Amino acid sequence: MEAILLLIRIFLFAVFITAGIGKLLDLEGSERAVKDFGVPENVAKPFSILLPIAEILLGFLLLFTSVSWFGALGAFLLLAVFIGGMLRQMKQGNAPDCHCFGAIHSEPVSAKSLIRNIVFAILALFLVVSWKKQGLSFGDLTNELAIQLIFGLAFIGLFGAVIFYLKKISEQQNQIMRRVEMLEIISHEGGETKREDVQFPTEGLPIGAPVPDFAGENLKGRTTEFEHLLMLGKPILFFFVGPNCPSCTALLPEIDDWQNELKEKLNIVFVSHGTAKENVAKFGENREVLLQKEREIGAIFGALWTPTAVLVNADGTIASRLAIGDAGIRELVNIIKSARNNGGMMYAATDEIANAEQLGAEIPPFAANDVSGKSISSEDLKGKRTLLTYWSLTCGWCGQMLGELREWDKTRGLDEPNLLLVSSGDAQRNRELGFRGTVLLDDEKALPTSLKMDATPSAVLIDEEGKIVSEIAVGAQNIWALLGKKM
């Protein structure tokens, strides 16, 4: 029994030390987390610093039998506060980042994190009720007990390491499978690269997302910025190529034909790497070529392979999914040929885009009440760009991005879109989300259904004229991309 109490103390010591150090390594995230849990903004910063210090102090108190009871009592009370905060957030339908172990490990509040804290609290309570029996001190250990303790800790550590590395191996296996699939898609073996669609991989920016600013050197060594390319007032078809890419060489005659055929519709720009001399020898000196140093421009677009193409509208927003390989690029170009260029705006979207036929069209008429009972209609969206977001109080992924979305909503500039949150359920619970923007109640899900939005969180951009100008962005990463931001 005495040895078990010692093991509990050592285990809780490891938990609290890890949690405290993890939070100190990410104080910004800790401050954001405590705000999401309801700590007033004026005390959030000092609280986010004092909390990990308290956790580390409690951890060290647990090591020594003379003070371990006080450490156990403090640990139990702190865990009880954590559990109460989690239950409150879950009751409100929120799932903020618990930031339990800070930079080391973090996850949204869920039944899993709640149960974990309850287990820790039970262990701490076991020490509290033991009162004077806090287990063996390190000075009481005999050689035999010390060996047993070391083997016990080693077994626990080994078991944890095995679980951790099995998870890592599984993640790496998934990555390898994705790469194999990609290689199968872009492999040409002297022939055409065949593929089913023009949108793989989905890591590319969603249609309607603004392209972040970037710059590269042209073949004469002069810097060309993205905004310089947009000054011509036409959509741009970017080709991501390389001086050692055989498929790129094979496509050059067709690209020349496309350039002549589509010159009234768009401009063609190559994005390559390597030296200017290599690229002149490969592509000639009369093309618009931007040289990237370490494929940093390709990383912005998600273009990781050559050849890849993507269409960008004259206003600097994405107009197509990524087209990878020669067959995919030909398919994209055929779509572009039939697409209308309306004032520099063009959408090259296939049937795989859920709302492809709605791009550029007006939002379906609607009317519903917001959380205060005010009637909101589609006409109210005109005059200012709007990020229409489909939300759910019971969606864990919504809760995970709640804090950052709420912060953006409170601080967004005049040039950024309004926020219209389409939710359902209790009006009071939706009001407690704390958004500055409009929260619309749509229990029948009529508006999301008319927009073909069937997942939460998801969003589309509506322009000043009430037209849909983006595909449906599903998940936090893609929603932030619509706003021109990174997670």
Description:
With 487 residues, this protein is an alpha/beta fold. The protein has helices at residues 2-24, 27-36, 41-61, 68-91, 111-130, 143-186, 226-230, 246-262, 276-283, 296-301, 325-338, 396-411, 427-431, 446-450, 476-482, and strands spanning 215-217, 223-225, 236-240, 267-273, 289-292, 308-312, 323-324, 367-369, 375-377, 386-390, 418-423, 438-441, 458-462, 473-474. Strands 5-4-3-6-7 form a five-stranded mixed β-sheet. A five-stranded mixed β-sheet has the order 12-11-10-13-14. Strands 1-2 form a two-stranded antiparallel ribbon. Helix 8 (246-262) links the parallel strand 3 (236-240) and strand 4. It starts with a helix and ends in a 5-residue tail after the last helix. Residues 184-202 have low confidence and may be disordered.
Give a nutshell description of this structure.
The chain has 487 residues and is α/β, with parallel strands linked by helices. The protein has three domains: 2-141, no CATH class; 215-353, Glutaredoxin, CATH 3.40.30; 359-482, 3-Layer(aba) Sandwich (Glutaredoxin).
